Amino acid sequence: MMTKVYPLQFEPILKERIWGGEKLKTVLNKPITSKITGESWELSTVKGDVSIVANGELKGKSLMEIIDDSPNELLGTAVYERFGKEFPLLFKYLDAREDLSIQVHPNDELAKKRHNSFGKTEMWYIMQADEDARIIVGFKENSNANEYLENLKNKTLLSILDDVKVKEGDVFFLETGTVHAIGAGLVVAEIQQTSDITYRLYDFDRVDAEGNTRELHVDLALEAINYNKVDTYRTYDKKINQSNTIVDCPYFTTNFIPLEGAEAVTKKGDSFTVYMCIDGEFEVEHNDLTFKYKKGDTILIPAAMSNYALNGKASILEIYIS
Question: Which residues pair with 91 in a beta bridge?
Answer without folding.
Answer: 43, 191
